[in-house]
Structures are given as structure tokens and as C-alpha cells.
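Could you help me review a protein record that somebody else here produced? What it holds is a sequence and that sequence's fold in C-alpha cell form. I have pasted the whole thing underneath without changing anything:
=====
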Amino acid sequence: MKLAYLDCMSGISGDMTLGALLDLGVDLTVLQDGIDSLGLPSCQFQVEEVKRHGFRATNLTVQHEPEHAHRHLHHITDMIESSRLTAKQKQLANDIFLILAQAEAKVHGSTIEKVHFHEVGAVDSIADIVGAAIGFDLLEVDRVECSPVPTGSGFIEIAHGRVSVPAPATAELLKGIPLAPSEVQAELTTPTGA
């Protein structure tokens, strides 16, 4: 069994996960090809090597045209099912989105069919999640574990207004997960990372 261990000392986001997967050997061209097959508008991965506190890392950002789409779960699963991803990649991406939909439905008092994704349904979040599914599959990872997760503190603005950190969906996703203390006044862990 192949295990991936995520050291989340600074939190976790979709971009951070993809940067780590690239550092582990995932081919950026293969990752981009999988994302291109989703039909997202001009979605491109931009990658650069950075140094943070004396350590090298891969920084990945998702570049795309602005959009104002609010997608439901079925829109995203249709996109995934119509793509050129492998069956295993499709299954993992769909599983992640189902977990996100369940968390969003719970915090909004809705159902997974009715909940619509704002931030998590945006192009960059879809690319992060599907990209992670591709990357974990390409690396043949069977299990993912992580260190205790710092969430940060303070407040952020989301589509529903000002909320405390961790955002409600992030807090729901992290139930039962060991958390690390953090005094940082920022969102260190995003829903896509969680």
C-alpha cells in the first residue's frame, strides 16, 4: 500500500496540494491535459519555484477567465464524467465533491441536490480538486494521511458574507480531524484543502 503523508504545518489548500503532487513527480502536462478535458474556460496551471523561510517549494496557481457561475453538484459530476479522466480519477474527484456537497448542505440546512457551490464550484477549485484526484492516481496513492491541521483565525469574506475562520464548510469537513493551534489571522485551510 502506498501512503502519502501531508505535513500541513502552514495549513492546506487545493493549490498547496497540487504543488506538493508536482514536487512528488506528477507530470504538469498530464495534469493540464486532464483539466483541459473538463471544458473549463481557459483554465491554465501556472507553476513557479519559490523559497519560503529558506525552503524551496513549487507554487501553483490556477489562471482562468472570470466567471460568475454557481454550479450544483450534478453540473460538476457531469463535467467530470464527460472528461477524458480515467475511471479511478473520475471516482476520486466525484467522491471529493460529494463530501464537499454533504458539508455544504449541512451548514446551509439544505440537501446535496439543492446546494450550489460558490467558491468550491469556481474554476480554480474544480481544477484543484480534479487535479488532486489525477495526481494521487498517477502516483498510485492508496491512502492519504496528514499532520494536525492549523485552520488560522479571524474572519474572511465569502459569497455568503463575513464568516469566522475556519469557514463553516471547512469546519464541517474537519470534524474528527486533529487540529493544530494557530494564532495566524488568516484562512490557512480552505474547503478544497480540507
Notes: The radius of gyration is 16 Å. Residues 8 and 149 are 6 Å apart (CA to CA). The chain has a mean pLDDT of 92. The first helix runs from residue 14 to 23.
